[in-house]
Structure to design on (356 residues):
């Protein structure tokens, strides 16, 4: 790396110029993250493949639909079909979440990622076109105008275009409210996620929400 | 290193040629940019069907991976363009914060910014006068250290 060695037989990176590019960019990235954390900028979330624990004090949503599905994630010895995990795929067009906590433990590394947001009840988390593949859901749920047992391919109340395969069971509702929500999800995605009061932490050990 | 081959000379020459090729372009920058694209995309791998349902948000990670891979390849094929390509990679890396999982939970964004900074600050090797090579950049290469 020394500049006194001439001539240079290989290309290299000029350190000062590297710093002149890298540092301002990181500053922009940090500023962006801060604005996201304050809810000024929306983020787009789409994670899948690892079981994620999601908890929230309260979830209020409109245009809800749900159908049975299998996720072809990593082979799960507990699942009935080898390599496939039975889930209910849930779509909510507009969701508001109070005191959201999301945790994933990365297998083999003993490291957990914990995301918290919406801890201040005046500034909850807002999500549009939320789609969650969940294997377990606990909580107290209230549904408005629910239809249970329709064909998954004929869903119409959920997010636009949200429908499943033919002959699969499904249910849909105009509105729902779940308190003391706790779920295990294999895939979470949302068109936009406004994460007020975001905190993202990487911790060693197996940490599961709520924390 | 030449034990496995019956024609050690050719293997050695191949290695030397690869080294020359490698040193004449911003390989590490391209490597980190591709890595960042893979990290951002890897978080979102899921059955194809869902991606269709969700539209833009679901495929944005794939678009980012495509851009990163293409730009990194351009940078390897045309090392002279390193500043232009690196600048575009930088914008892609920063945009990933809004487009996909906060830039792959920040890690992908960091890898991308690192790779693009390496690309932009890259400097081609000095021409070898003995071999009569032409400088890669038309401007004198020693104007900055």
């Amino acid at each position: 790396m020394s500049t006194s060695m001439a001539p240079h037989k290989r290309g290299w990176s000029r350190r000062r110029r590297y710093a002149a590019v890298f540092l301002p960019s990181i500053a922009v990235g940090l500023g962006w993250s801060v604005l996201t954390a304050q809810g000024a900028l929306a983020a787009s979330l789409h994670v899948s493949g690892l079981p994620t624990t999601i908890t929230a004090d309260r979830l209020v949503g409109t245009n809800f639909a749900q159908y049975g599905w299998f996720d072809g994630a990593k082979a799960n010895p507990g699942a009935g079909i080898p390599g496939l995990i039975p889930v209910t795929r849930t779509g909510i067009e507009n969701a508001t979440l109070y005191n959201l906590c999301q945790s994933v433990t990365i297998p083999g590394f003993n490291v957990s990622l914990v995301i918290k947001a919406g801890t201040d009840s005046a500034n909850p988390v807002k999500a549009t076109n939320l789609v969650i593949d969940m294997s377990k859901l606990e909580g107290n749920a209230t549904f408005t105008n629910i239809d249970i047992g329709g064909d998954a391919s004929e869903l119409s109340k959920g997010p636009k275009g949200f429908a499943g395969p033919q002959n699969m069971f499904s249910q849909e509702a105009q509105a729902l409210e779940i308190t003391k929500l706790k779920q295990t999800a294999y895939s979470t995605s949302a068109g936009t996620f406004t994460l007020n009061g975001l905190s993202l932490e990487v911790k060693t050990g197996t940490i599961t929400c709520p924390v | 290193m030449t034990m496995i081959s019956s024609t050690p000379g050719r293997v050695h020459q191949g290695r030397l040629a690869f080294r020359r090729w490698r040193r004449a372009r911003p390989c590490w920058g391209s490597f980190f940019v591709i890595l960042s694209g893979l990290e951002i995309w890897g978080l979102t791998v899921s059955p194809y069907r869902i991606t269709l349902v969700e539209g833009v948000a679901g495929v944005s990670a794939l678009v980012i991976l495509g851009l990163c891979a293409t730009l990194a390849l351009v940078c390897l094929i045309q090392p002279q363009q390193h500043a232009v390509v690196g600048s575009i990679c930088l914008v892609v890396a920063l945009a990933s914060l809004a487009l996909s999982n906060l830039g792959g939970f920040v890690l992908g964004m960091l890898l991308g910014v690192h790779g693009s900074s390496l690309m932009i600050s890259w400097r081609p090797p000095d021409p070898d006068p003995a071999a009569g090579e032409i400088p890669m950049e038309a401007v004198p290469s020693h104007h900055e250290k």
